[in-house]
């Protein structure tokens, strides 16, 4: 109130009427916002834009996902707190009807060369790769690793907040870059969609 009417009434008079210390008011008015407060202002500005672009449907969970896609690692609790303070609400996602999972098909031209023999007599002859889910305080992360069956050493890995084909490609590329030999190596995986994509098989 004092800030609003400071051009119309003396500040000390308003402080006396409101029983506020004049020195306390001046200290408050000179106080600069902290780095965290400035970051919240910047973050909230972007959250308002994303919420408007979604026509008011984004909730805290999907808001956090969209911010992560832009490279902003923000905790879910912080997103929910800022949205609640600003009055931003989203509509819940419609529940999808569960369908019976179908067994994954092996792509044409691909066969199981490992034949369930998970032993290797030499390094860099048999690799296996898979994806695992890791729960953190800021949401889920997915880790893809490439393992050498000779000594069970991790030779390549990649982590992302979404399990897509680019994540598994990066893990395999990391393993290839660290190879010491040029002999052929068998790379074994399951038949999930990430490992059946055309980009991965190249």
Textual characterization of the structure:
With 202 residues, the protein is an alpha+beta fold. The protein folds into three domains: 1-31, no CATH class; 39-92; 126-200. It contains eight helices and four strands; from the N terminus they run αααααβββαβαα. It has a four-stranded mixed sheet. A hairpin with a 2-residue loop joins strand 1 and strand 2. Helix 4 (60-69) packs across helix 5 (76-86). The termini are far apart. The relative contact order is 0.09. The model has no long low-confidence stretch (mean pLDDT 78).
Short summary:
The protein is an alpha+beta fold and 202 residues long.
SSE topology:
Elements: H1 11-17, H2 22-30, H3 35-53, H4 60-69, H5 76-86, E1 126-136, E2 139-148, E3 153-160, H6 165-177, E4 186-188, H7 193-196, H8 198-201
Parallel strand pairs: 1-4
Antiparallel strand pairs: 1-2, 2-3
What structural class do the secondary elements suggest? Answer: alpha+beta
Main sheet properties: 4 strands, mixed
What's the count of strands?
4
Which range does the strand content fall in? 15-25%
Shape: elongated
Distance between the termini: 67 Å
Strand order of the largest sheet: 3-2-1-4
Rounded to the nearest angstrom, the radius of gyration is: 28 Å
**Number of self-contained structural domains:** 3
What percentage of residues falls in helices of 4 or more residues? 25-40%
pLDDT < 50 stretches: none
> Which sequence of SSEs, written as H and E, runs from N to C?
HHHHHEEEHEHH
- Described by its quaternary structure, the protein is single chain
Number of contiguous helices: 8
Which whole number gives the mean pLDDT? Answer: 78
């Amino acid at each position: 109130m004092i800030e609003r009417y400071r051009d119309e009434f003396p500040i000390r008079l308003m402080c006396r009427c409101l029983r506020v210390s004049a020195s306390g008011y001046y200290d408050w008015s000179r106080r600069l916002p902290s780095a965290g407060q400035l970051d919240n202002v910047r973050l909230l500005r972007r959250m308002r834009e994303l919420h408007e672009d979604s026509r008011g449907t984004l909730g805290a969970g999907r808001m956090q996902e969209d911010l992560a896609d832009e490279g902003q690692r923000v905790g879910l609790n912080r997103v929910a707190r800022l949205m609640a303070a600003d009055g931003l609400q989203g509509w819940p996602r419609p529940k999808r009807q569960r369908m019976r999972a179908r067994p994954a098909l092996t792509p044409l031209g691909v066969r199981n060369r490992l034949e369930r023999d998970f032993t290797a007599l030499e390094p860099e002859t048999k690799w296996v790769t898979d994806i695992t889910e890791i729960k953190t305080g800021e949401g889920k992360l997915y880790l893809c690793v490439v393992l050498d069956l000779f000594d069970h050493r991790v030779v390549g890995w990649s982590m992302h907040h979404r399990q897509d084909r680019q994540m598994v490609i990066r893990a395999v590329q990391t393993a290839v870059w660290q190879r010491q030999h040029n002999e052929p190596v068998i790379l074994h995986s399951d038949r999930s969609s990430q490992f059946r994509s055309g980009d991965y098989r190249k």
